[in-house]
Amino acid sequence: MFNRLKMMTGRLTLSHLLAGMFAFCAQAQEAAPLIPRPQLVSSMKGSFTIDASTRITHSPGQEAARATAEYLAGLLRPSTGYPLPIGTSAPNTGNQIRLELVAKDSSLGAEGYHLSVTSRGIILKASKPAGLFYGVQTLRQLLPAAVEAQTTQSAAWVIPAQQIRDRPEYGFRGAMLDVARHFFGVTDVKRFIDLIAAYKMNILHLHLSDDQGWRIEIKSWPKLTEIGGSTQVGGGKGGFYTQEQYKEIVAYAASRHVTVIPEIDMPGHTNAAIVSYPELNCRDTTHVLYTGTAVGFSTFCTSRPGTYKFIDDVLRELAAITPGPWLHIGGDESHVTPKADYIQFMNKVQPLVSKYGKQVIGWDEIAHASLQKNTVVQYWADAGNSKMAVKKGAKVIISPAKKAYLDIQYDSTTRLGLHWAGYVEVDNAYQWDPATLEPGIGRKDILGVEAPLWTETIITMDDIEYMVFPRLPGIAEIGWTSPALRDWKEYRERLGAQATRFRAMGIDFYPSPKVDWKK
Ligand code: TNX
């Protein structure tokens, strides 16, 4: 509707006039094609237009609201070209986008928000700062896609009058980036964070170590990065984050209400660490750096005390620079670790994580060990393991490869990715419900949903975008929107409408034939 309006008008003053008239004539305005779909939207007559004198305001003394106001201004200024000054003001003065933290509204929870758009202005309310941030993401999608441009656009910045009340289904909505198989620098990771946060995801899981590379500086074991970080799949130069760079990523993520979960995979997937320090392996043979893509051939020596001293040091340093509550210890595909040793190993490592005040996450194989209270199990392949975890009282993160893996090819023609878990087209990635996927794993057992991107075949940011879009917005919606409000046919329309946004954001997405993409 607004694109048509934009075409009809072009000039700002005339468009203002027409926008008003159009809204006046319209009986009921269609709800905007938002992703994730909000809980409750009620359209009203009229609209608000952001113009050269619009201000962004917050209540005095609300620093968190101010931070979100700055973030919103940062989104709107480049494309609108307006100054959009930020300040405090009384609630009822017009032409402002007002961000308010309210104490009372417990129905909004930790991440919910209430967005009210009238012809006088916009009021966004939330009980917690994250709610304001998500309200801003919604507001962003209510504006014409041109708002995403980095240069001044001559669009009419009209937002239809409406009320939105919204809050997420799950408190854990994540994406994982494997920076071990191919390394991605700080700039790429920041863009990845911006892209997931735009769809209201709040977790970034970084897979920081694997056979092909060790990507985080550990000051007490410097060869991990010196040697273990020096290559990647295909033999490129690899790379790693210094602790300062990691902190920069964590802080950037926090400014987007995203919590970073660092993963050190063990006892398998450890060739890079073993090459750096051969004593971590039982046989003191020399190992060589690995640049292939096979899995399951390496293991730490589970019987040597030195192995646990090493792990203690790594977890201590990592915990000290990770404000989030979780440390992920991997545990997948340890094919050359005898089962009894694996169990003993996991029983010894879990307390080391707790010692540094963090909660364990492990891939579903970890369910074979005794699970510490609060250990979280990530379901990726084996439903039996995950059910066993639930029986042992663990909460589960749902990341089934056949639905949620972003590295799995869309179809047989996809130029990137793997297909060991079949093919995952956009409809397939969307049409499932974590709470009914596996009998024996119910809503109450589930912490949330995560979409992992493994990078054996992913080399550039462009590659990342192609595999992540358009599937990630669907997984984000599974995490955010209640299942009763989700339907593929209806979602398909909203996803098609996102194309203009993807383009304006410079996202190289896969134009799936399952969707009619808006031109
Ligand atoms: C399985 S998922 C793995 C990874 C691979 C991925 C490729 C998991 C816990 N292990 O090591 O990268 O498949 O899709």
If helices are DSSP runs of H or I spanning 4 or more residues, what is the number of helices?
A: 16
What are the distinct ligands in this entry?
ligand TNX
Instruction: Give the strand content.
Output: 15-25%
Radius of gyration: 24 Å
The rough form would be described as globular
Mean pLDDT: 93
Are there runs of 5+ residues with pLDDT below 50, and where?
Answer: 1-28
Report, as a whole number of angstroms, the end-to-end distance. Answer: 14 Å
Strand order of the largest sheet: 12-9-8-17-16-15-14-13
Q: Would you report the number of β strands?
A: 17
Based on secondary structure, the structural category is alpha/beta
Largest beta-sheet details:
8 strands, parallel
- Helical content stands at 25-40%
Question: What brief labels describe this structure?
Answer:
16 helices; disordered N terminus; eight-stranded parallel beta sheet; alpha/beta; 519 residues; binds ligand TNX
Topology:
Layout: H1 2-9, H2 12-25, E1 40-49, E2 55-58, H3 63-80, E3 86-88, E4 96-101, E5 113-118, E6 121-126, H4 129-142, E7 158-166, E8 172-178, H5 186-198, E9 203-207, E10 209-210, E11 213-214, H6 223-226, H7 243-255, E12 259-263, H8 271-276, H9 305-320, E13 326-328, H10 339-355, E14 359-363, E15 376-379, H11 383-391, E16 395-398, H12 401-404, H13 426-430, E17 446-453, H14 461-468, H15 471-480, H16 488-504
Parallel strand pairs: 2-3, 2-4, 4-6, 8-9, 8-17, 9-12, 13-14, 14-15, 15-16, 16-17
Antiparallel strand pairs: 1-7, 5-6, 5-7, 10-11
Helix pairs in contact: 1-2, 3-4, 5-7, 9-10
The chain binds ligand TNX.
